[in-house]
Design a protein that fits this description.
The complex is a heterodimer of chains A (202) and B (272).
Chain A lengths: L9 E5 L2 E5 L1 H5 L4 H12 L18 E7 L4 E6 L8 H15 L4 E6 L12 H10 L1 E2 L35 E5 L7 E6 L5 E5 L3
Parallel strand pairs in A: 4-5, 6-9
Antiparallel strand pairs in A: 1-2, 3-4, 7-8, 8-9
Chain B lengths: L9 H21 L8 H31 L7 H6 L20 H6 L5 H22 L5 H29 L3 H14 L11 H9 L9 H14 L23 H14 L6
The chains are: A alpha/beta (202), B mainly alpha (272).
């Protein structure tokens, strides 16, 4: 499934220069790690359609990339962020499209549900990009070894503070537990009075 | 379009009970889209509906594989959702009740009553959270993976709806009266969530998941704590027993399915 028909000749990007090569040359790459490294480089350019500040790698949803030199097939394992995230299918398609454009003729994407995605997998670079984009990055979870997180069923005090991504003030308040996408909540800064989104830690 | 038929399989039934709980509650919550009292809650209810439909899609897809293993066709998620007859849905009745503490009011003003909606969400999220916690240890790796993801979502749903139950229960005279009515309406449907049958025994024996009754203690403790915070008390036991998980539904289920399935029944195989 998910294998698109291969085209006879595909431009392959090496050192920024497109070169036309056929499938046999690609399958015969000297080092399959080289193919995988190249695939990772491509994936770093594939953006999340709903949070376009982040690449799928920044988001931590690319779990594994494997190149089968014998079959000339690249397999990419992705993990969904939320069960109902409507972007999951769009991301799979974008990943395949970008890899095809980069010269990988046979690309297979698969969903890997376990272990479940956590915002702890968003990279340091990803967090910096989120903040620059105006989205407060998620705090790191104090997860127990089994992944469980302490939670209060009824909160006595308001949510812990989230720093404003624009002015750094901690004087902020949550406006809405849910936001424009499943992964975000909506906040406002009392200091600079700007509203902002927060990437919910899960 | 012809309905699909089910091979008898305890495994498939066990998974469908969960998948249908998520699917049918999601369908009810989607009725709020564009109608919630405030924009923030409109977004909240539809986001929760989205999480639930995602959970049910994963479980229904897996049910298709289990069904094939039991010697039947490997139905896909759409076939399960859109081409099953009412008697082949196994959600607990509480999930299919209209968003209203009284049926007549529901007919007059759809989408209905917000107090009822958040209280039911709290009850079901608390129940699902207990179920997902145990199912994350399932011997079936796919179910364990789905549960580990869904658990995080159920926690957030429980917290959000719990906040509202406290705010409304411990709120004004009006909000408290409406939360009280919702509690009276919903409580008789709680027993069904924790009743064991042969399907539970088979699942427990196979290590697939817990018996329904094993979730009761933790559920009671958490719900009692929230209701106490909301200055409300737990109603007495009701002799009434709902039977949705056996496929015998309330009078509301047929209307819900008619709406949910009409497009695929009229235009089979239609896709986005």
């Amino acid at each position: 499934m998910n294998v698109l028909p291969s085209a006879p000749v595909i431009p392959l990007m090496i050192g920024g220069e497109p070169q036309a090569i056929g499938p046999i040359e690609l399958a015969g790459l000297p080092d399959l790690h080289q193919a995988e490294d190249r695939a990772w480089a491509v994936l770093h350019q594939v953006l999340d359609p709903e949070v376009p500040a982040l690449s799928v790698c920044d988001l931590g949803i690319v779990r594994e990339v494997r190149y089968d030199a014998g079959r000339g097939e690249l397999s990419v394992w992705l993990t969904p962020t939320y069960s109902g995230c409507p972007a999951t299918e769009a991301i799979e398609a974008a990943v395949r499209e970008a890899l095809h454009a980069a010269g990988f003729q046979r690309v297979k994407t698969e969903l890997r549900r376990a272990p479940a995605w956590t915002t702890d997998w968003i990279t340091a670079e990803g967090r910096a990009k989120l903040k620059a984009y105006g989205i407060a990055p998620p705090a790191h979870l104090n997860a127990a070894p089994d992944g469980s997180v302490p939670i209060r069923i009824v909160r006595r005090s308001p949510q812990e503070s989230v720093a404003c991504p624009r002015c750094e003030s901690g004087d902020t308040e949550r406006l809405s537990a849910f936001g424009t996408t499943a992964c975000k909540s909506l906040w406002r800064c009392r200091a600079c009075r700007e509203p902002f989104e927060h990437f919910k830690p899960i | 379009m012809t309905s699909i038929t089910l091979k008898p399989s305890a495994e498939v039934r066990y998974v469908l009970r969960l998948a249908d709980a998520a699917l049918i509650l999601s369908q009810r919550l989607s009725e709020w889209c564009g109608h919630a009292p405030v924009l923030e809650e409109d977004i909240a209810l539809t986001n929760m509906a989205l999480d639930l439909v995602g959970q049910s899609r994963a479980l229904l897809t897996h049910a298709g594989q289990l069904h094939a293993r039991a010697g039947g066709p490997s139905y896909d998620e759409d076939q399960w959702a859109f081409l099953r007859e009412e008697r082949d849905f196994f959600n607990p009745t509480i999930c299919e009740l209209p968003n209203s503490a009284d049926d007549a009011a529901h007919v007059r003003s759809r989408p209905g009553d917000f107090a009822f909606t958040v209280l039911r969400n709290l009850m079901v999220a608390t129940w699902l959270k207990q179920a997902w916690t145990r199912l994350a240890q399932s011997t079936d790796p796919e179910i364990a993976a789905i549960a580990a993801k869904a658990l995080k979502e159920a926690r957030y749903h429980q917290q959000h709806n719990g906040d509202w139950v406290v705010r409304l229960g411990d709120g004004t005279e009006e909000s408290r009266a409406r939360m009280q009515r919702a509690l009276q309406r919903l409580w008789p449907y709680v027993s069904e969530l924790f009743e064991d049958d042969a399907i539970d025994e088979a699942a427990a024996a196979a290590g697939l998941g817990p018996r329904s009754s094993e979730l009761r203690e933790a559920w009671d403790a958490e719900i009692t704590a929230v209701l106490a915070e909301a200055t409300m008390s737990v109603p007495g036991q009701s002799p009434f027993r709902s039977t949705g998980r056996r496929g015998v539904h309330s009078e509301h289920m047929g209307y819900l399915l008619a709406e949910m399935q009409s497009l695929q029944r009229a235009h089979p195989g239609t896709v986005w």
